[in-house]
Amino acid sequence: MDLSINGQPRPLPEGATEPDMPLLWVLRDVLGMTGTKFGCGVSACGACTVHVDGKAVRSCVMPLSAAVGKSVRTIEALGAPGQPHVLQKAWIAHQVSQCGYCQSGMLMVAAALIEKNSNPSDADIDAAITNICRCGTYPRIREAIKTAARELRGAIPDGKTRPVPAFNAGKAL
């Protein structure tokens, strides 16, 4: 069985998985991709958020069988060394992270939001960000998302708007 992860086919070792194994454990334990975090295991906290066919999903409750044949994007594909995603830059500028544990999931939810909505309101952000941050940095998260969205909407010299940066498909960070 193969998965498409960050734009690359990833074969799964024979006997290492079961169809009902949560995608989170396939990513972390089978493929060694530890950027996606385990938080609660019941889809409540959002630390495990990844994109499946462009939609933010909680990988701790998504069975492997539901991800087969779909495009999975993880935090490892958001930005690149020396070329961070606009959200990552905004996260730093607004000093969002404190403990940082929830941040990969937060960034993945935020990326899905601004890919669909280039000018999210506070209500849009609050509706999308259902992740739990024990440090309580929600006001900073909201401002960082707005900053990133403004950057993406900003005009470039030829008068066109900037496209949402693509994920860093297939490159290890």
Strand order of the largest sheet: 2-1-5-3-4
What's the alpha carbon Rg, rounded to whole Å? 16 Å
**Number of H/I helices:** 6
User: What is the succession of H and E elements?
Assistant: EEHEEHEHHHH
Q: Based on the structure given, which CATH architecture of the largest domain is correct?
A: Roll
Estimate nothing, just give the exact number of structural domains.
2
Strand content bin: 5-15%
Overall pLDDT: 90
The CATH homologous superfamily of the largest domain: Beta-grasp domain
User: Structural class of the helix and strand makeup?
Assistant: alpha+beta
Question: What is the terminal-to-terminal distance?
Answer: 25 Å
Low-pLDDT parts are: 155-161, 169-173
Mind summarizing the main beta sheet? 5 strands, mixed
Question: Would you mind describing this structure in some detail?
Answer:
There is one protein chain. The chain is α+β, with helices and mostly antiparallel strands and 173 residues long. Helices cover 33% and strands 11% of the residues. It has 6 helices and 5 strands; from the N terminus they run E-E-H-E-E-H-E-H-H-H-H. It has helices at residues 23-30, 64-67, 86-93, 103-116, 122-128, 138-153; strands spanning 2-5, 8-11, 49-52, 55-58, 71-73. The protein has a 5-stranded mixed β-sheet, with helices on one face. A hairpin with a 2-residue loop joins strand 3 (49-52) and strand 4 (55-58). Helix 3 crosses helix 6.
